[in-house]
Automatic annotation (TrEMBL):
It catalyses: 2 H2O2 = O2 + 2 H2O. It comes from Echinicola pacifica. Its EC number is 1.11.1.6. Heme binds at residues 75, 115, 164, 361, 365, 372. Residues 31-419 form the Catalase core domain. Gene3D superfamilies: 1.20.1370.20, 3.40.50.880, Catalase core domain. The active site is at residues 78, 151. The gene is katE. This is Catalase. The keyword Membrane does not apply. GO terms for cellular component: cytosol.
Length: 719
């Protein structure tokens, strides 16, 4: 019996397919795996009430054996993730560029499954680690599965896949003591980075707030590598993929991230789950940067180099469709854990470039599923199987589901009448793009890959003052946890290639003098017989000096959809005041939660009962996007005596989030350090995001901006 809920778009092809395997135990008798009804699931079979257990108890043995084998290896990277179903809807006919069927007719809906993840941490680690986020989408097209396996950062640490195991070994917990979990702030990661100048651009991104997103629905996604679109005539264009979130791009601050990791390590997973349950479906537009073949060498970086992005000033992003995530998985393990992505899952009309990072990935993903999912039949697992027919001569292996009938399992054959048969291109048969290739068989990198600092500089210079400040704080935090001075020095030396001020400030924070003296061989990152002179990165000279789209402030979104607002309340609060906020907030897709000292109900000033949603004990300010102090004299006065309530408001102020108040709510505000600081600074309250007099509209508009960074200069607050 199926228990998957229909999505808003009705039952799509993938959902119907999954329903074949989805079962519910509702109103059903408990059975063994062989279908035998179970009479007693409370006691094992014993020789007498107080006697030893008996081997014959097949029910006990089956149950325990299954339990003993329940775990599978977690993903070697991206172990921690959360997934959701939905659909992709194309906006226009792209036949000029690609023959991909799902991109031909405007309005075509293709079922998708998306999985968002952190990279370094184990399956049970915090969602709020400073890390890249995986952004993987499986499109169940009529021509087979297409996987766009991307990240929320458009570049990567390394240029060649052969360095991936080293990168990951360096960032994972250190091998001798398995410390630290889900963190890059330790010696081995920074040792590796300090010896790999190509990682510098990516380091700028992961030290920015992009690496601590507020929500999976508030981050961009990128295919990173240059791919190809190929049309029916066989003409190819290079293409870069982008996902743009409808909710804007927003992050938490590092102070919040660390606190949330303690209070709610499932913060992002819960947010995704809940927003779908609430009908606030996360939505992303898919964009492409299309580059004609002839322009391959037009840029001052190599488009095959995954440590570079193509600034939107040089090639604009063309929006071609949208993805809506509207259904939670019915079972985490069956769907989110067993889903197997692979950048090599393609459809006709999409193809690869020679990016050496991408080429290496094409090997790794199948290989890793073999160990993780236990054999070569992982494509048969319901979440992985395509919605179109699958026929070939691959047979048998662990857990085989398909019952292939007939005598023949080879091709060519006459025993099966030549079936299954090959397809001509015009009938959808995939052919690889016929790119001319020439060259020596050689273990080398093109010189066009050697500029490691220009785009790092472009990224840093494109950030707002607050964003730059956060990068500095992140670098200081991370490097302060590194124990070796030689690593500090090498990183600072690299930073000085990006920006002198940045390097100086970090050096100062680490207690180093500039210029730093490097006392070791930096040439480990070149081949043993290489001449170091040949491998030098030139000085940073970005062709685009500032690219505004690299700053998160460019993608604010101006929406409160999916945001969580706290209302601080105690007995005597005005229910009218709360209702006014709730009405307008819920119309815009935001959630309002009543936070008080204990659960249960509180009597309002008007005499009705108000249900408390959560308490100061479990729900501190950091898990909310804004706070509202409603009218009600007794409530406000009572809360002024509560240190948790005072801390709540002070912390909201410190983190530059909107503070709204109505009527007597201001009594609580006036009891805070935040009030004192803002009064002393002489700032106009509204300008620093403190909205008084029950102006709900003004409060929501301020909250939609996510943060009032203007306040940050006056945010030195003990909270
Ligand atoms: Fe992955 N990566 N990766 N990666 N990757 C995996 O495959 C790998 C890279 C990405 O939600 C693994 O099924 C190599 C870039 C995502 O299930 C593994 C290299 C990008 C996910 C693997 C890279 C990604 C993975 C582990 C360097 C962005 C999670 C489990 C050449 C474009 C997918 C698995 C999910 C997962 C290998 C670099 C994205 C080991 C060798 C660059 C989103 O196969």
């Amino acid at each position: 019996m199926a228990n998957n809920k229909p999505s808003e778009a009705g039952e799509n092809a993938k959902q119907k397919d999954l329903n074949k395997n989805t079962v519910s135990g509702d109103d059903q008798a408990m059975t063994t795996n062989q279908g035998l009804k179970i009479n007693d699931d409370q006691n094992s079979l014993k020789a007498g009430q107080r006697g030893p257990s008996i081997m014959e108890d097949f029910h006990f043995r089956e149950k325990m054996t299954h339990f003993d084998h329940e775990r599978i290896p977690e993903r070697v990277v991206h172990a921690r993730g959360a997934g959701a179903h939905g659909y992709f809807e194309s906006y226009e006919n792209l036949e000029e560029y690609t023959m991909a069927n799902f991109l031909q007719k405007p309005g075509t809906r293709t079922p998708v499954f998306a999985r968002f993840s952190t990279v370094a941490g184990s399956k049970g680690s915090t969602d709020l680690a400073r890390d890249v986020r995986g952004f993987a989408v499986k499109f169940y097209t009529e021509e087979g599965n297409y996987d766009l396996v991307g990240n929320n950062i458009p570049v990567f640490f390394i240029q060649d896949a052969v360095k991936f195991p080293d990168l990951i070994h360096s960032v994972k917990p250190e091998p001798h003591n398995e410390i630290p979990q889900a963190a890059s702030a330790h010696d081995t990661f920074w040792d590796f980075v300090s010896l790999m100048p190509e990682s510098m651009h990516m380091i700028m991104w992961v030290m920015s707030d992009r690496a601590i997103p507020r929500s999976f629905s508030m981050m961009e996604g990128f295919g990173i590598h240059t791919f190809r679109f190929v049309n029916k005539e066989g003409k190819s264009h290079f293409v870069k993929f982008h996902w743009k979130p409808k909710n804007g791009v927003h992050s938490v601050t590092w102070d919040e991230a660390q606190k949330i990791s303690g209070y709610d390590p499932d913060f992002l997973r819960r947010d995704l789950w809940k927003s779908i349950e609430d009908g606030n479906y996360p939505e992303f537009e898919l964009g492409v940067q299309i580059i004609p073949e002839e322009d391959e060498h037009k840029f001052d970086f190599d488009i095959l180099d995954a440590t570079k992005l193509i600034p939107e000033e040089l090639v604009p992003v063309k929006i071609i469709g949208k993805m809506v995530l509207d259904r939670n998985p019915a079972n985490f393990f069956a769907e989110t854990e067993q889903v197997a992505f692979h950048p090599g899952h393609l459809v006709p009309g999409i193809d690869f470039s020679n990016d050496p990072l991408l080429q290496g990935r094409l090997f790794s993903y199948t290989d890793t599923q073999l160990i993780r999912l236990g054999g070569p039949n992982f494509h048969e697992i319901p979440i992985n199987r395509p919605v179109c027919p699958v026929h070939n001569n691959q047979r048998d292996g662990y857990g085989r589901q398909t019952i292939n009938e007939g005598q023949s399992s080879y091709h060519p054959n006459q025993t099966g009448g030549g079936c299954p048969f090959q397809s001509a291109m015009k009938n959808g048969g995939f052919t690889h793009y016929q790119e001319p290739v020439s060259g020596h068989k050689i273990k080398e990198r093109s010189k066009s890959f050697f500029d490691h600092y220009s785009q790092a500089k472009m990224f840093f210079d494109s950030q707002t003052a607050v964003e730059k400040e956060h990068i500095k704080q992140a670098l200081t935090f991370e490097l302060s946890k590194v124990s070796r001075e030689d690593i500090h020095k090498r990183v600072v030396a690299m930073l000085s290639e990006v920006n002198e001020d940045l390097a100086e400030e970090i050096a100062e924070n680490l207690g180093l003098d500039l210029p730093v003296e490097l006392d070791m061989d930096l040439n480990q990152s070149i081949p043993a017989d290489g001449d170091p002179e040949d491998y030098q990165s030139g000085p940073a000279k970005p062709s685009v000096k500032k690219s505004e789209s690299l700053s998160m402030s460019f993608r604010n979104g101006n929406s409160v959809q999916g945001r969580d607002f706290a209302v601080l309340a105690a007995a005597g609060v005005s229910s009218k005041s709360i209702e006014a906020l709730k009405k307008m907030a819920s119309e815009k897709g935001a959630n309002v939660k009543i936070v008080s000292t204990k659960l249960g109900k509180i009597k309002s000033a008007e005499g009705d009962d108000i249900k408390v949603d959560t308490t100061f004990l479990t729900s501190p300010s950091v898990i909310f996007d804004a706070v509202y102090l409603p009218d009600g004299k007794d409530s406000a006065e009572m809360l002024t005596k509560n240190p948790d309530a005072i801390l709540f408001v002070n912390e909201m102020f410190k983190h530059c989030k909107a503070i709204g108040m109505d009527g007597q709510g201001k009594t609580l505000w006036e009891a805070t350090e935040a009030h004192k600081i803002s009064t002393d600074s002489g700032a106009e309250l509204e300008k620093i995001g403190v909205i008084a007099n029950g102006d709900v509209d003004g409060f929501l508009k301020t909250a939609a901006k996510h943060r009032v960074w203007d306040r940050s200069s006056s945010c030195d607050i003990p909270a």
